[in-house]
């Protein structure tokens, strides 16, 4: 059956690139991009349908679903960890009320699938830090993490109770050169490249030795689409797949960047985001994703850094 995919939050770091990738695969008119207020890039706007609405407004969301005969919803709308600590109630409102609207509409309209990303933010200080297992302690200390744990549980509830196909994966920090991330704790790993290329120096808001799980955008898009296309009958998990690609510290990333930009320098001025990073794992065990839907990343730190620098130089040093 033909897919009509609605991407909610299609102008953010992941949503914007996922929209373009999905339009390549499923056809421009079959992927409806949407956002609350930020204008999209020309590519997102011109490549297929685009709608403005607030995911907290169930009637508006329902009208868009009816207008296009939506069969799949991908929910990329979220207030991330650092922004969520500045406005915890907004994070709860958008992350939870947006999600329940999507799940309820998908159930009522008998949609084929909902994909809701989760995050390494579901973990907390009591979680084992290294090679964090799929099944483990979920006691996050951020509002973003709390909404992501609740989102995973809700997704699994809709699978069990209503037979709705809900899927999700726990994104690590995502690194990309197209659209800047916003409001996250892992955002330093993108900002560092812009500063290295433009100014040859960067002041990092995390300490030199803060190790976090990360992933390059091509792997993130692949993971998302591979999970979406996976055979439902083979899935033992649904809304909470651990996925892993690489883990590094700001110090290690800076050393890798220095191999390409020799006079690059970094200094460290940790802020409130350090406590968030300290509550997250160093590395992730993603064997369930590997076994159940064949997940395998392609980019490590060296390959990602080389590709980021090549692409950003083209973009920033025109
Ligand atoms: C954040 O830093 O909040 C996000 C995430 C890990 O989900 N990038």
- Through-space gap between termini: 44 Å
| Overall morphology | globular
The helix/strand series, from N terminus to C terminus, equals: EHEHEHEHHEEHEEEHEEHEEHEHHH
**Total DSSP E strands:** 14
Taking all residues together, what is the mean pLDDT? 98
What is the strand arrangement across the widest sheet?
A: 3-2-1-4-5-7
Q: Please state the structural category.
A: alpha/beta
* Number of separate structural domains: 2
CATH architecture classification of the largest domain: 3-Layer(aba) Sandwich
Q: Could you give me the name of the CATH homologous superfamily of the largest domain?
A: NAD(P)-binding Rossmann-like Domain
- CATH level 1 name of the largest domain: Alpha Beta
Strand content: 5-15%
Low-confidence stretches: none
The whole-angstrom Rg is 19 Å
Number of helical segments with 4 or more residues: 12
What does this structure look like?
α1 packs across α8 (217-229). α2 (42-46) links the parallel β2 (31-35) and β3. This protein starts with a strand and ends with a helix. It has 12 helices and 14 strands. With 318 residues, it is an alpha/beta fold. It folds into 2 domains: 5-172 and 215-242, Rossmann fold; 176-214 and 247-282 and 298-316, UDP-galactose 4-epimerase, domain 1 (Alpha-Beta Complex). Bound molecules: 2-amino-3-ketobutyric acid (AKB). 2-amino-3-ketobutyric acid is lined by residues 80-81, 119-121, 144, 171, 173, 184-186.
């Amino acid at each position: 059956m033909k897919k009509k995919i609605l991407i909610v939050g299609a102008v953010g770091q992941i949503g914007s690139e996922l929209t373009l990738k999905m339009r390549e695969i499923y056809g421009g008119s079959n992927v409806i991009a949407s956002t609350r207020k930020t204008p999209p890039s020309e590519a997102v706007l011109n490549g297929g349908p685009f709608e403005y609405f607030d995911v907290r407004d169930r009637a508006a969301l329902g009208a868009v679903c009816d207008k296009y005969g939506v069969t799949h919803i991908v929910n990329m709308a979220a207030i991330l960890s650092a922004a969520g600590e500045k406005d915890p109630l907004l994070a709860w409102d958008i992350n939870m009320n947006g999600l329940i609207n999507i799940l309820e509409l998908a159930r009522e309209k008998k949609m084929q699938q909902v994909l809701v990303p989760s995050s390494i933010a579901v973990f907390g200080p009591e979680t084992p830090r290294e090679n964090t297992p799929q099944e483990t302690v979920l006691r996050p200390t951020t509002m973003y993490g709390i909404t992501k744990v609740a989102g995973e549980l809700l997704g699994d509830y809709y699978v069990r109770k209503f037979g709705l196909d809900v899927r999700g994966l726990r994104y690590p920090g995502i690194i990309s050169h197209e659209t800047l991330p916003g409001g996250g704790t892992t955002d330093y790993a993108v900002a560092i490249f812009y500063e290295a290329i433009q100014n040859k120096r960067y002041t990092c808001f995390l300490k030199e030795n803060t190790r976090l799980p990360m992933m390059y955008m091509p792997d993130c898009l692949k993971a998302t689409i591979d999970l979406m296309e996976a055979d439902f009958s083979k899935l033992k998990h649904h809304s909470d797949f651990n996925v892993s690609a690489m883990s590094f510290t700001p110090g290690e990333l800076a050393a890798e960047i220095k191999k390409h930009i020799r006079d690059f320098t970094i200094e460290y001025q940790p802020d409130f985001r350090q406590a968030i990073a300290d509550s997250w794992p160093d590395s992730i065990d993603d064997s369930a994703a590997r076994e159940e839907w064949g997940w395998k990343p392609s980019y490590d730190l060296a390959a990602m850094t080389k590709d980021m620098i090549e692409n950003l130089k083209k973009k920033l040093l025109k």
